[in-house]
Amino acid sequence: MTPDALARTHAEAFTDQRPWTAAEFANLLSSPHVFVVGDADSFALGRVIAGEAELLTLATAPAAQGQGKGRDTLRAYHQAASTRGAQDGFLEVAETNRVAIRLYQSEGYSQTAKRTNYYRLTNGQRVAALILNRPF
After folding, report:
1. DSSP 25
2. E strand or H helix at 134, and its extent?
3. Domain span at residue 63?
């Protein structure tokens, strides 16, 4: 997937937060530690360093939501991260993103920390980021 395609899907999926730009995706993908799995409907962008995987973002286009694409993409991300040597992983998710939180918890993630007022929503509201971890 190109940075432009990633940015389009991200913008469709994240309407309550500032979506990432194609330039931001290109910058992240220039790192040898960063990888992407999925397709234009659903993708995950991650980074593996020193045996730890960070899920940078997972985005599923609204037209593809509710069909298991996000779960399939998350599982593909886990497999790709494990192949790259990850033994455990973490992610941040807005405390208001209940659908994502349920998905992550159903795939073995549990909350280990909370960053108060971390995200600024497009309406100006600030919400906490939950830090979730799981072994691979």
Report:
1. H
2. strand 126-135
3. 3-135
Tokens, residue 68: 């298991």
**Ordered strands of the 88-94 beta sheet:** 34-38, 42-49, 52-60, 88-94, 126-135, 110-120
Residue whose tokens read 């940075």: 3
By annotation, the residues acting in catalysis are 92, 104
CA 58 centroid distance within chain: 3
Strand, coil or helix: what is 75? Answer: helix
- Token pair in block for residue 85: 């040597």
Q: What is the pLDDT of residues 17-54, one digit of tens each?
A: 999 999 999 999 999 999 999 999 999 999 999 999 99
Q: What is the pLDDT of residue 82?
A: 97
Strand 52-60, strand 88-94: pairing: parallel
How much is the pLDDT for 118?
Answer: 95
Q: For the domain that residue 90 is a member of, what is the CATH number? A: 3.40.630.30
Provide the terminal-to-terminal Cα distance of the chain, rounded to the nearest Å: 25
As for how many domains the chain has, the answer is 1
CB atoms within 10 A of CB 45: 23
